Amino acid sequence: MGDIVSALVITVIALAALAALLGAMYWVVGRLPKKWREGARAWVFLFPSAVAVTIGLLVPAIRTIYLSLLDDNGNKFVGFENYVDVFTTTGTRLTVFNSLSWVLIGTIATVAVGLAMARFADGMRIESAAKSAIFLPGAISLVGTGLIWGFVYAGPPFDVGLLNAVTEGIPGLPDSWGGGGDRLWLLERGFGGVDPPDSAPGVNTFLLIVVFIWAQAGISTVIFSAAIKGVPDSLIEAAKVDGATDQQTFYRVTLPYIRSTIVTVATLTTVAGLKAFDIVAATTGGRFGTSTIANEFYVTRFVQGRSGVGATLAVLIFILVIPVMILNRRAQARAEEMMGG
Amino acid sequence: MATITLEKINKVYPNGFHAIHDLDLDIADTEFLVLVGPSGCGKSTALRMVAGLEEITNGEMRIGDRIVNEVEPKDRDIAMVFQNYALYPHMSVYDNIGFALKLAKTPKDETDRRIREAARILELDEQLDRKPAQLSGGQRQRVAMGRAIVRQPAAFLMDEPLSNLDAKLRVQMRAEIASLQRELGVTTVYVTHDQVEAMTMGDRVAVLKDGFLQQVDTPQNLYDRPQNVFVAAFIGSPSMNLFEGTLTLDSSGQGGSLTLGSQAISIPSEVLAARPALAAYDGQPLIYGIRPEDMEDASLDSRPDDQCIHGEVSLVEALGAEILVHFGVDAAPVDSGDPDAVVELGDTAVVVGRFNPRSRIRLRDSAKVAVHAERLSFFDSSTRLAIWD
Ligand SMILES: Nc1ncnc2c1ncn2[C@@H]1O[C@H](COP(=O)(O)OP(=O)(O)OP(=O)(O)O)[C@@H](O)[C@H]1O
Ligand SMILES: [Mg+2]
Q1: How many CB atoms lie within 10 A of CB A187?
Q2: Which of A80, B71, B377, B382 has the greatest number of C-beta atoms within 10 Å?
Q3: What is the ipTM of this complex?
């Protein structure tokens, strides 16, 4: 009890001190000569977040990069050896390919599913009910999502599994397709006669990506739905009068209009895909060739205690995010230019 | 090119609001018909039903010989110009104009030729590569026009296409649209709440109020022979001055006089001769109206005293070629039913006269004003219909 009270008191005092500091700085800025005032005022408001970014982001990032150049005990400088390791070890290299699959397939499918649902839910009588149902999966924690899908993909002797229950019902389905209903879906990398090599993502990785799409599609539907509603009615009507079918109207007027929203959703999904950890950890724990960079980072660093390779994987995620951000900025700028901005 | 026929068209919105009542309109091939009326009277609703953007509750709509009640907008062969232009923001001017042709799979070279032709007519040649956001209001309006004329459709439908332009541009575009329409000979329905546009552009004008058609006629006929109080007040600017008064005929039945509050105006015998129906109103109240230009400063107009009225001048607007003089009389003003009009309450009506600029009338003078009584309009005070016969 005393702990809570003192924590509260400290929090309040800290916040009050920050507010007082800001107030004081703002007051000082107000007395500055006019030509400096505008610039100085911006800095007053940027200051707290600048401090937070420096302490919480910049310093750790630099330290992580530094650690990635040391050996696994953090003692010896080894240059880029850890990076070479990541790309030459089959296991870690696979995690990179897996992560890229998450990003590519996950993003394309999330955007496509979100757009399709938003389009078809639009104007439906049960629109809000339908959208709530679609949105719900996104409100569950990803660990919970992973557990739920664990039951879907489960097989004997632990559980029958929903997917097995379905495939069992299909007569004549070969065993390699899940016929018989006793397949251990998340353990098997092959499917239907296809048998990926150890260096390539297996079918079980795609099953996990399905979980990711299921979790992401809801929020993307909601965002797209709002964007579609933002398209002026008169534009849609103009297209109809110009002779466009519903489909042509959607592809030639609605989609270009919400282009920047599509770019935003794609970027958010890409970043989420690169960081994919919870779903993997809650289902396979990264075994059976399903690990992703983020999961591998966790295992290497915190389970195996190898700080060098762990830091390298973290830096890798960071590096992979950069082109996404650049592409996002470019696409966003082009979308704005398209709208004549 | 086609006729457009509306037969007993009704529109009831899903919320139960009855926006259009039994609308009958016969729009001839190549005709320029203007739909005019105060805000909320149902002009856009009517136009959107012609376009197919609004469902027809009942009645029959034909474009040419085809009943189009159930026909999709895209299959009606009409082009529409929207109030906010509704240009596709992501397309260049060229693509905006050519969108309909592209959808219709018109051959590329013909599409190109027609886009450039439309751009030339509308003086948009220099802007073809630009996006709508990089255009001025007037240019956007032209692109919207270009999108319509490039199609060579059966009809143009325009919903207040000039209301977002400044006054000067509006006057210029008004003339351009009218002459373009005449050149192309495409049947046009044009919605506006601006009666100057209605009068200057339309072959015929349809006046709408609260979803009821009031009168369809040529601009001049609407002005000269309005069928009811509303049309009389709505058409013309400044509005016709309307009063409630009592008509008293002479014992001979040849002439008579009208009360205007505590004053009276004598009615010449030819007025009563031309409108024998007025005889039935002897001793009865009725509504009568006088247009501003049918009054004059009495010092510049040799009328007998019994055709002159007096009032205190409350405002003088000198417009150069004419002056508008506002003066008060103690008669009850008449509410014409135009929701946009300012109606003074009480027992004083403000009368507006359009006088010769040589008039020396000044603010707060007690003016003596000659009334051209032969030009009066009369209306039944309960039905509000005009008495012309
Ligand atoms: N979707 C709708 N549902 C219910 N009522 C509507 C709807 N659209 C319009 N109305 C009502 O129908 C009437 C006619 O509307 P309309 O838009 O046709 O008017 P308008 O004559 O074009 O007016 P304005 O000059 O302001 O554009 C108005 O009273 C309006 O409130
Ligand atoms: Mg309207």
Answers
A1: 15
A2: B377
A3: 0.86
